[in-house]
Amino acid sequence: MKSIEPFIRDINDFPKPGIVFKDLTPLLNSPEGTDLCLQELLKQIDGAKVDKVVGMEARGFFFGTLIAKALGVGFIPVRKPGKLPYNTISETYALEYGSDVLEIHEDAISPGDRVLIHDDVLATGGTAAAVCKLVERLGGKIVQCNFIMELEFLRGSEKLKPNHVASVLKY
């Protein structure tokens, strides 16, 4: 089986010294890599019934929309404050130094909708945990949180319990 790993580029000392950034742009630039990644993300769902796919701004939009189209379901963007044009609900979450806020349209999810949450990378889990709270506040049932890659040493999946977490690559 082919891996998407050759399509991921390491960038040393970005965004600051000592960090090795996992760059997805070569993956996005390759139709073969994009298709391979999409197929791997779909395999992770393993036939589970999904009504909506939620993707986080902005890199979660790349494959979130592709997953939704492949599943024949709607895509819901979660964005920073002031970016969505209709009524929203928001969730504040902690960052290393400070906090941030995410918003979702208040009518994006109906009670009982089965929701797949997608983003590119699971690091500390703060963003994904905030999105889980937004989905649950709207009455959605989280099927899975899925990611292209997971930085296991940061233990982000612990913040997402009891939700199922799946990642194509783990570092």
From TrEMBL:
InterPro entries: Ade_phspho_trans (IPR005764), PRTase-like (IPR029057), PRTase_dom (IPR000836), UPRTase/APRTase (IPR050054). It catalyses: AMP + diphosphate = 5-phospho-alpha-D-ribose 1-diphosphate + adenine. It holds the Pfam family Pribosyltran. One of its GO terms (cellular component) is cytoplasm. GO terms for biological process: adenine salvage; AMP salvage; purine ribonucleoside salvage. Belongs to the purine/pyrimidine phosphoribosyltransferase family. This is Adenine phosphoribosyltransferase. The lineage of its organism: Bacteria, Pseudomonadati, Bacteroidota, Flavobacteriia, Flavobacteriales.
